[in-house]
Design goal:
This protein has 249 residues and is α/β, with parallel strands linked by helices. Helix content is 36%, strand content 18%.
């Protein structure tokens, strides 16, 4: 068995266990496929993971270091100046914890008793003293990335809106406008020369977190049921399971 895939997981990490939390990614899984969400969080059998994107992680780490320089100096980053955004990286006592996986920004949702959590990449502030959620993305495409208009990028938008919701539930004043710092690896260089260069775009997103409350309630109702729900539309994992069930002896 792969070192990255342990099933079933320890019961403490399942719904009802003392270590279980409703993460931003679990909310997104529920919206995409209630069946996979239930099997994962109630029965402890998660979807096989993809391999770690170490290059993406490296880009995230370097961006955090770069923006932290301006956070300490209380100055604008050149990318923020380039796009004329009213913002600067802001210092906060809890930022390191909010960035940490398995911790993040947390809120106990009183109607369900579930702890909702999500780890942010960065936090800026504007002249209205509104916090701005910022998320880093890295890819390599031939075309310039200026908008998030693909269906699969809707998950990015939901991700940001969950973060905005979490900060608001913790009593913070949060701007509806969040930003994606999108790094696109340049493929047009004549040679690699032991370095990969990126074009960096700042993409604004007007968030609307009104859907989050109903999603949390729906996820809780799903997990409280004794019945495995139906698959989501176009779930590749469920399609694979159904196909394998037809050929296995």
């Amino acid at each position: 068995m792969s070192q990255y895939y342990k099933i079933p997981r320890q019961v403490d990490w399942n719904f009802g266990g003392k270590r279980w939390k409703l993460s931003r990614s679990k909310i997104d899984l529920f919206l995409r496929c209630p069946k996979c969400f239930y099997i994962d969080n109630k029965l402890g059998i998660k979807q096989p993971p993809g391999f770690p994107f170490n290059l993406n992680s490296a880009v995230d780490a370097l961006l955090k270091k770069e923006f932290d320089i301006h956070r300490v100096a209380d100055t604008q980053h050149p990318l923020i100046e380039k796009y004329g955004v009213d913002a600067r990286p802001v210092a906060h006592d809890d930022l390191d914890e909010w960035r940490e996986n398995f911790k993040g920004v947390q809120y106990v949702h009183e109607p369900t008793g579930m702890t909702v959590t999500g780890a942010i990449d960065d936090l800026w502030i504007n002249s209205k003293n509104e916090y701005i959620v910022v998320d880093y993305k890295a890819t390599s495409k031939n075309d310039e990335i200026t908008v998030l208009d693909q269906d699969w990028q809707d998950g990015y938008k939901r991700q940001m809106e969950v973060y905005q919701w979490l900060l608001r539930q913790n009593g913070y004043k949060v701007s509806n406008t969040g930003y994606f710092v999108y790094c696109n690896g340049d493929r047009d260089k004549e040679a690699f020369d032991a370095k990969l260069e990126f074009d960096i775009t700042l993409i604004a997103h007007e968030g609307n977190d009104e859907w989050v409350e109903q999603a949390i309630l729906g996820a809780h109702k799903c997990l409280m049921s004794d019945q495995i729900p139906e698959s989501g539309d176009d779930c590749d994992f469920c399609t694979y399971r159904k196909a394998m069930a037809k050929v296995e002896l």
